[in-house]
User: What shape does this take?
Amino acid sequence: QLQLVESGGGLVQPGGSLRLSCAASGFTLDYYAIGWFRQAPGKEREGVSCIRSSGRITNYADSVKGRFTISRDNAKNTVYLQMYSLKPQDPAVYHCAADWGCSKYGSDYNYWGPGTRVTVSS
Assistant: This one.
């Protein structure tokens, strides 16, 4: 069974950092692009970042550019989203998703994790 599972969410103060992980089981991530999406209550799902299978090409939403870094460790079958300088507008449930290529549209992804919640509060 193909599964993605996110971890690393939690409560952090404004300006703080978190690292999210997206671990795959049942398949290898080597050939997949992995996207991170987030959805806050009452808001539409937003594409945050994506990394292609090679790891050499990454994309970021303007809202997180310069603050978030996506990376992958294919040996660990895991993709990471390092988040710095977290802001009050960043809280959401963060999901990772896998597909053959990067897209900012969630509907283009076939495999999704259940999500991990990020809360930013003082």
User: Anything to note?
Assistant: The mean pLDDT is 95. The chain has no helices and eleven strands. The radius of gyration is 13 Å. Residues 38 and 46 are 5 Å apart (CA to CA).
